[in-house]
Amino acid sequence: MDRGTLPLAVALLLASCSLSPTSLAETVHCDLQPVGPERGEVTYTTSQVSKGCVAQAPNAILEVHVLFLEFPTGPSQLELTLQASKQNGTWPREVLLVLSVNSSVFLHLQALGIPLHLAYNSSLVTFQEPPGVNTTELPSFPKTQILEWAAERGPITSAAELNDPQSILLRLGQAQGSLSFCMLEASQDMGRTLEWRPRTPALVRGCHLEGVAGHKEAHILRVLPGHSAGPRTVTVKVELSCAPGDLDAVLILQGPPYVSWLIDANHNMQIWTTGEYSFKIFPEKNIRGFKLPDTPQGLLGEARMLNASIVASFVELPLASIVSLHASSCGGRLQTSPAPIQTTPPKDTCSPELLMSLIQTKCADDAMTLVLKKELVAHLKCTITGLTFWDPSCEAEDRGDKFVLRSAYSSCGMQVSASMISNEAVVNILSSSSPQRKKVHCLNMDSLSFQLGLYLSPHFLQASNTIEPGQQSFVQVRVSPSVSEFLLQLDSCHLDLGPEGGTVELIQGRAAKGNCVSLLSPSPEGDPRFSFLLHFYTVPIPKTGTLSCTVALRPKTGSQDQEVHRTVFMRLNIISPDLSGCTSKGLVLPAVLGITFGAFLIGALLTAALWYIYSHTRETEQPPAGSTGVNSPWEPVLHSTQNGACSPRLPFPPPSQRPAASAATGLEHLGVPPPHRTFNPVGLGYGCPGDRPLATLL
Predict the structure, then answer these.
(1) How confident is the model at residue 68 (pLDDT cuts 50, 70, 90)?
(2) How far apart are CA 67 and CA 74, in angstroms?
(3) Locate the TGFBR3/Endoglin-like N-terminal domain: which residues (predicted)?
């Protein structure tokens, strides 16, 4: 061969070698089929939602989030976690979470230390344990009206639609959206604000690569591009149930260019990725990956090029933050057929704790009634053999779709105290050798007394029945005797000032109504407290008013059916400022307004009088002909009399020559319209923004 042609031949040979994997990838034969769950399962957490939005509302008092959750028919379980970090040593602003569901849900809520108000449908949502937060009944509205209902309470920070979630993580104060108004849009990325895990695992497929010998297996994960194109790290957890040394495998990770990978594997594997990757044990060491095909056929070709004979798992996912792969192939033969039929009955999955949380307690007509719905019991796969009170002779009745256990307060082992009737629900389950027990309570409302107190200082020492405009008032609600098993909460409060002042809303839906109302920390005994600042912008000022509050007693443990509502009120006297507008604590706003208006009126009248004198003096007094002097209009002018004497005359015309007074004399004569009020009469506090309607809190 000619020496000159040798380099060309070598170059062509290298080029053909480099192109061979691509050719193999395009012609590979591998029929992907679903893999049974016992061979491989992939779960993931993502921030991608079918519809959603994130907006910024930095100056809002209330942070509002809305979740629309779609579940399949039948009860479902959901874990909902809210996270917030302290800012400057304090917890963030109050949060309203609106939860809209289409079917029954067992909710496990975690919101430790967060001032949360939860709006939900109590007929569909059942708490696995008492939430310990303020709750509000959500009206039965369509989605658009629910968004409007939520927006009336504060600007919406985030909203999302999720299909059959198993768990949701909502991070508060993390909204990075560029929008100032939240409107649902399709295929959105919620970023760090919301992440969720679908209940249904991802579809896992597998196949045999034709023409490749050996037992090397490939696990291929393909992450599809998302709505957001920002840098993203995907944590990949790989757990293979094989003994060390029994596995020869390769992990292929392909995703958009902005995705990097953090790998946490329990086996040594060959790694083949796009972008950059690192290992959990050495997270700071980034390794550059490769440029891989972005099609299924291309990725199968990569697996064949790496001498894999089996694709043990092939998964395509939306843009995710965490992906978990569990597989047990260990290089053995691939099983894509359905799992074999079990010859032994499945293990009972009944959860006794969750079952006991479903018992509803109702108290009425001096009797306690326990209700347990059979539909919920069947969903938990529980078999109940008995439901009784502490006295086993008091057994529940089977009423078709539910078990009902009822007893008067005087029987079945009831324990009666000054404020409460207590007993114990005992449930026998087929899968448990010992019965399950739960404390149940009823309140003796006849023995409870609710008091509403007004105080003049935040120390709540000196009670009063008088409020003074412009001074802060402090309110506390108490129940006696104290009931440690129940939590006392403020539902709503308003101040009725009669026909002169209207109604001023202070608290609505367990949330402060306006900037000048503050919900304070409860007393050491748990009594709710709040403060408000009231002011009047007109007269006459009402002399009395009625402060009314609706409170709720909610059990700390047990169902929400035991929640009791009561309304308490007290009559208040209102101190009116004296004529000078002064009080012992200084000038109030009406006095300041009166002084200002009076000073303006006096100044305007003086200006009008001086202008009148000046203009009429100039018209009547002109200097005589030949005179070289100029008399000031304010200097006396000499005039001759019949007897030849001279007498001074002031430059005012006689009364007969003066112009007649008219209605335009005064301020209107100067082109200044008469003053009139442009503000509304009642409001809360100084400097509260917004309009001030008569009966509305700012």
Answers:
(1) very high
(2) 19
(3) 45-197
Only one residue has tokens 């005012």, namely 652
Minimal CA–CA distance to 506: which of 518, 489, 488, 523?
Answer: 518
DSSP state of 280: T
Tokens (6 digits) for 203: 């579809």
pLDDT at 361: 85
Per-residue pLDDT tens digits for 646-667: 444 444 444 444 444 433 333 3
Which runs of E-coded beta strand occur in 128-281?
134-137, 156-163, 165-171, 185-189, 194-198, 205-208, 217-223, 232-240, 249-254, 259-265, 270-273, 276-279
Structure token pair of residue 691? 């309009």
- Closest among 449, 451, 439, 391 to 418, alpha carbons compared: 449
Mean pLDDT across 197-219: 89
Tens-digit pLDDT profile for residues 396-406: 998 888 899 99
Residue 545 above 70 pLDDT? Answer: yes
Q: How far apart are CA 349 and CA 355, in angstroms?
A: 11
At 300 the pLDDT is: 93
Q: What is the pTM of this model?
A: 0.58
Is 379 exposed, middle or buried (CB count within 10 Å of its CB: 0-12, 13-18, 19+)?
A: middle
Distance CA 59, CA 84 (A): 17
Query: With contact defined as beta carbons under 8 Å apart, do 631 and 637 qualify?
Result: yes
Average pLDDT, the chain: 77
Q: Give the bridge partners for 425, in sequence order.
A: 438
Structure tokens at 686: 């100084």
DSSP 8-state secondary structure symbol assigned to residue 394: S
